[in-house]
Every structure is written in C-alpha cells, then in structure tokens.
Write a structure and sequence with these properties.
The protein is built from 10 helices and 5 strands; from the N terminus they run H-E-E-H-H-E-H-H-E-E-H-H-H-H-H. By secondary structure, the chain is an alpha+beta fold. A 5-stranded antiparallel β-sheet has the order 2-1-5-4-3, with helices on both faces. Helix 7 packs across helix 9, helix 7 packs across helix 10 and helix 8 packs across helix 9. It is elongated, with a radius of gyration of 18 Å.
Length: 216
C-alpha cells in the first residue's frame, strides 16, 4: 500500500500542485480515520501524529463519511457540530490549514480517503471538486488491486503509460471530454490514443475495452 500512496501523493503534487496532502486507508469509509500508518506530504507530515492520536475523533469528514462524493470544508460548514469546531480551532487552524478537500476512494475490498489541505480559505473550488471526483473513480480499482493483485498479464501490456491511463479511465466509463480534462490534454489527443488502445487490445468499442480490462 505504501508504494501506491507515495505514487498518488507525489502525482498530485507534481501535476496539480497539491503539496499538503494525506492518504488514509481502511476497511470502511467511517473506519479510514483509524488508520495508524497514513502517508502525508508537506505540513501535513507534522499534523498527522496528533490527528491519529486524538483529533480523528472530531473530524467532520469522518462524521459525514457515508457520502462517497468529494467534499470541501466550506460545503460542510453549515453542518458542523461543537466537536467539529474543536477539530478546526484546536487542530486544523493552528496547523496553518484553512481549507480542506477530501476525496473518498470506495473500493470493493478497501476504502481510502485523500485529504488536500491549503492555507488560504476557499482554496478549493468547482474545478478542484470535479478533478477530485475523477481521481476517486480512477483510484478505486487500483486500491482493490493492491489487495488482490492480478495473477496474469494484462491484455493491455503493449500500451504506453499514457495509453494505459486512457484505457483505464475509458474502462471506468469516463467520456473523452472527462479524460482530457483529467489529464490536461486535448479531446483529439484522447481520441488518437484510444484508437491505438483499440488496435493493441483488439477491442472495437468502449464496452469491449471495459470487459477486456476487467478480465485482465
């Protein structure tokens, strides 16, 4: 699990400039906060020990973990209870964090939660929420694969890393426009890569690709 967490957080920092982040993994969305060995980057490294020891009990994102959609601290503001205020006033704000966006990752075997933290209030807007939605969808099958690794080679083994990304996002049901936005490339570039994906895998459409990926 460590390698996956490191790859994800480093990718978020490099591609999206999210440099203060956490990655927790657990058996359920509500149990993710009890992860004793989460990974963190940036100022979150110093904050995680206190969170694990004490403040996870007051985390509003843990209290409302039944939602499988990304959520920002601003969106939860009207629902905060007294214990949540304690989390903000005694933990989050003193740590220099005024904005937080959480990405739930709902796998079928394990679940995860990525926290994006920022110093500026209101730092996470609609673009960040849309991006978080795609990231959560993309990571769910990868999280499961860490628990139950494939025993045979993927039929997509001949693809380049970029083509592999596009194949997986397509298999997850994302549209070309969504993939282009997530990877910061044009829609035409997605179409060109997808043409090559079909050629390598022998699939003729998105449904076949999804089935091919699942069987692999």
């Amino acid at each position: 699990m460590t390698a996956l967490r490191e790859t994800v957080l480093e990718g978020l920092a490099r591609h999206f400039d999210y440099r203060t982040t956490t990655f927790f993994i657990g058996d359920t969305l509500t149990g993710v906060s009890t992860d004793k060995s989460p990974l963190a980057l940036g100022r979150a490294i110093q904050m995680v020990p206190r969170y694990v020891e004490e403040f996870h009990r007051n985390d509003p994102f843990a209290s409302f973990a039944h939602s499988a959609r990304p959520a920002s601290l601003d969106a939860l503001h009207s629902r905060l209870r007294p214990e949540h205020r304690r989390y903000l006033e005694r933990f989050l704000f003193p740590g220099g964090v005024r904005a937080k966006l959480v990405i739930p990752i709902r796998g079928t075997i394990k679940t995860g939660r990525i926290g994006l933290l920022a110093q500026e209030p209101g730092a996470f807007g609609p673009v960040d929420l849309a991006r978080a939605e795609l990231i959560g969808q993309y990571l769910a099958p990868l999280l499961d694969r860490q628990i139950c690794p494939r025993t045979t080679a993927l039929p997509t083994a001949g693809l380049t890393p970029r083509q592999m990304q596009i194949a997986q996002l397509t298999a997850l049901g994302l549209r070309n426009d969504d993939i282009a936005a997530a990877l910061y490339i044009t829609r035409d570039t997605v179409k060109k890569h997808l043409t090559q994906v079909y050629a390598v895998t022998g699939c003729s459409n998105r449904a076949e690709l999804a089935g091919c990926w699942e069987r692999g």
